[in-house]
Specification:
5-stranded parallel sheet, single chain, alpha/beta, 11 strands, Rossmann fold
């Protein structure tokens, strides 16, 4: 009888455990984006949240995209009122002050927003796309490969997080080719492909034979004019396989995963999450070369791979320069 009772208790506790796990309260993430998720910056955050939902288990994820400046605070407050565990998004420009105001009013919720400014206690953390390291590596490739000694960069807005990518690309090119000149164009917005294409064509007509496409729209111009380009934020080779050599890749998953774990441990505090977006933490990388693996000179690939490993190991530091660069 004792044996039967013991077996029955084990079965009962097993059922209770399975039931409790199955119906455990899910971890809830909300994301708010000022642009469409097709725009690379917000798209990277969105993909990271989807990956967390898939790989970490028992996570609910909701998002709202293309939020107008006038609606940003309203949408954010609606999510906060619904009691999400973690709210993420982009707070640059129009979203900066509203995001901080709402976070202050809901200290029990963890907020993590892309921002060029610092965190605020107790619950508002910040991150950024610290992909200047692979941008620097792209500059080295461009400096080695250019025939005209004229490069181009088409970027969004001259703020710190954009400037440091442009400056890193230029610094990498100058490191290996002091003769290089760089044409730099800012399109004045986050997502305006026609304007980016127009800027790229102007640079090509001025002699640029490789362009760093910090924004969408450059690849169309590159295809039409028969030059090569570098993508940004994600592996964009599939958009123009004959044009895109490689590019900086931003992986937000290490940041999102760390944030979720900190909240789950009840250890969330306001912090700068920037280190999780760098190469040493797996948050940044250089996109694959794809077909260019066979067409780029072997010595250029080796030079880049050797320096890439030094950056990951912490034995080479790419300079951070957030001043607005001058166009040559």
């Amino acid at each position: 009888m004792k044996r039967i009772a013991l077996v029955a208790m084990i079965v009962l506790f097993s059922i209770i455990f399975v039931f409790s796990v199955s119906y455990a309260k899910p971890f809830r993430i909300a994301a708010i984006f000022q642009t469409a998720i097709e725009e690379p910056w917000d798209g990277v955050i969105h993909l990271a949240c989807l990956k967390a939902q898939k790989e970490m288990g028992n996570i609910e994820y909701e998002f709202t995209e293309k939020i107008a400046a006038a609606d940003f605070e309203k949408v954010l407050r609606e999510y906060a009122e619904r009691g999400f565990d973690l709210i993420v998004g982009d707070a640059f420009l129009a979203g900066e002050e509203p995001a901080r105001r709402v976070a202050k009013d809901y200290p029990e919720i963890a907020f993590a927003f892309g921002s060029e400014f610092g965190p605020v206690a107790p619950n508002f953390s910040v991150f950024d796309n610290w992909i200047h390291e692979p941008a620097y590596l792209c500059g080295i490739i461009a400096g080695r490969m250019t025939k005209s000694n004229m490069l181009g960069v088409v970027a969004a807005i001259p703020i710190g997080e954009v400037n440091r990518l442009v400056n890193a690309f230029k610094a990498g090119a100058l490191k290996v080719n002091p003769k290089v000149k760089v044409k730099i164009s800012y399109i004045g917005g986050w997502f305006d492909p026609p304007k980016a294409k127009e800027a790229a064509i102007a640079q090509i007509e001025a002699g640029a034979d490789l362009i760093y496409a910090e924004r969408f729209g450059v690849f169309e111009a590159a295809k039409e004019k028969g030059i090569l380009a570098f993508g940004n934020m994600s592996d964009q080779n599939a958009l123009a396989p004959e044009v895109v050599i490689t590019g900086p890749v931003w992986d937000m998953y290490p940041t999102i995963k760390f944030a979720i774990e900190m909240v789950q441990k009840k250890a969330w505090v306001s912090m700068d999450l920037g280190e999780w977006s760098m190469m040493g933490k797996g948050g940044a990388s250089l996109a694959p070369f794809h077909s260019f693996e066979k067409t780029l000179p072997a010595d250029v690939i080796k030079e880049v791979r050797d320096l890439e490993q030094k950056i990951i190991n912490g034995t080479y530091r790419v300079p951070v320069d957030e001043q607005k660069p001058l166009s040559d």
